[in-house]
Each structure stands twice: as C-alpha cells, then as structure tokens.
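INFO worker-7 received task bundle
INFO bundle size: 2
INFO processing item 0
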Amino acid sequence: MSQKTTRRLFLGATGSAITLSVATAMGRSTEQDEQGPREAAFERNYDPPKFKPSWAKEQVNRQLLQDFVIFAHSDLAMVKQLLEREPGLLNGAVDWGGGDFETALGGASHMGKHDIVEYLLERGARIDIFCAAMTGQIDAVRSFLTLQPDLIDAKGPHGFSLHFHAQVGGERSVAVLEYLQSIKQVELKPIPFLRPKAEAEKQSDQ
C-alpha cells in the first residue's frame, strides 16, 4: 500500500472518530445528525406577551451558524472567512438539543483554542466565566464567583465544568485551576485531545 493511500485512510478514519466523539459529547447520534435538528412541540398555555417583535430583518441562516460554531472548535481560517461573510454570527448560539446552547466562543474555549478565542474577543464576542477560566483571567473568575458563589458548579456547553475549562487553558490558566480547586476540590481527569498536542510539541523540540 502506498504512503499516499495509507495517509488518506488514516485521515478518513481520524475524521470519522472526531465526528463520533463530538456527537457523543453533545449527547447525539450520527443518525440524528444526518436527520438535522428537530424543534420541540410547543403550544401556549398562557396569555401571549403584549409586545410584538418586529421581524423586518432576516435571521442568520441556521446552517451557516452551525458550521461557524463547529469550525470555531479548531479552524481559525474558516472562522475568519465565515465571520467576514456574516458578522451576525459572532454571538449566535446553536441549541444542540435539550437546551445545550453553544456559541463559537464557547466551542473555542472548551477546546483550549487560544488563537480562536483571542480573535473572537477582538471582534466583540461576549466573554463569560468559562472563557475567563480558560484564558487565565483570574480576577474576572474571582469577580464572577464573588457575585454568585454557586457558579463554581456551573456547566458550559456539553456540560463542561469551570475546572475543565481551566485545565484545557494550559499554562495560562494554572493559577485559575488552583484557585478553583481551593474553592472546590474535584478529580481532574486526563483530557484525551490534549495528549496529541503535547506529544506533537515534544517531538518538534527534538
């Protein structure tokens, strides 16, 4: 088997594994992904609000927003390309099901993608406590937890905790992780997708 063919097979298998892992983390099956999102049935059992919203402008396309949030997990070039095409994507949130809302900033934050996070913040993305934890903004994290101590148990997209976000932040967020552990000690489990990155950096130094 040629080197080119072997590489193609490897990339294909890797891509499938990543897709399955993300779907599992979001509590969805690949079959559900192919079917697309389904809106829950709803019927008012209360009086409608008196305020009537104006729908003069088109909403951001759902497929475009979904792609943008997915790319924000790993692909800065595509994030830039899509945001230039549609600035309204910046703070858009996708409901992956059951109220699991995720923005591009949220996706980049729990993946530890500092470059994507910094770009989104420069463009005006709304920082939250999870992003602050990942980027090592300890004063901001302290302020959030002083205002509302129960946020120590808050969950971000896909249920990822504050401790998890501080873990994926790497060296920049060591102080934040120590601070969070001083408030509530939790078991810090290894994060699989960080291992290849560390190994790659080690090999590049050799």
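INFO item 0 finished
INFO processing item 1
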Amino acid sequence: MIEIVMPKNYITLTAGLISLVFEKFGQAEKRAARRVESETKPMAEAAAQVVETAAAPKPLPKRDDLTLINGIGPTFARRLYDGGIDTFAKLAAAQPEEVKAVAKLAAWQADPATWIAAAKEMI
C-alpha cells in the first residue's frame, strides 16, 4: 500500500506558492501598465496640444451694439448681425430697402431710414 506523506510545513509551502503567484501577477500588471503608459503618452501629448489649441479663444470680430439705436431691439440686432450689418458704419452705408430686407421689417414696424440716420450720428 502506498502512503502519501504530507510535509509538516505544507502550510508554509502553500503560502510561499501563493505569494509567488501574486508576485508574478504584480510584475505582469506593472509591465502592462508601463506598456499602456508608453503607448498612450504620444496620444496624451497630442490630445494636450489639441486642447491647448481649442482652448485658445478666437477673437470675435468687432461688432457695434446696434441696440443703442432707438427702435433696434435684440431681435432686429440679431437679424442685422446675421445679414452682415454689424457695425454702425455698415448700417450708415446701407440703403433703407436693404436694411428692411435684412431685418425682415414689416411696413408697420419701423423706418430703417431713422436707423441709418442714427447710425451716421454714432460714427
């Protein structure tokens, strides 16, 4: 009959084996982390450059506050801005028919000639 003999220090041997396994897992994890870091470093640098470029505020074109002219409210000012009339000088140089078309004015709403006269005074 064969008798299996367990060593007296089998607990110590098992603990040593388990620590060896965890040590190997730890080394593998560190290698994987270094590999990921080396692969993502160029991407991180490129992303940082993109963020810096995107974060730099682009200068807005200088626009005059057309709402300072009597009769031009925020809605008409937005329509004029969208139509390319964004300064007092451009409004002063425009024809009443053009301003009426750009601001989408009804006949009863406002007289663009008064806006043009006021813009000439603001220049």
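INFO item 1 finished
INFO post-check item 1: The chain is about 65% helix and 0% strand.
INFO post-check item 1: The mean pLDDT is 82.
INFO worker-7 idle
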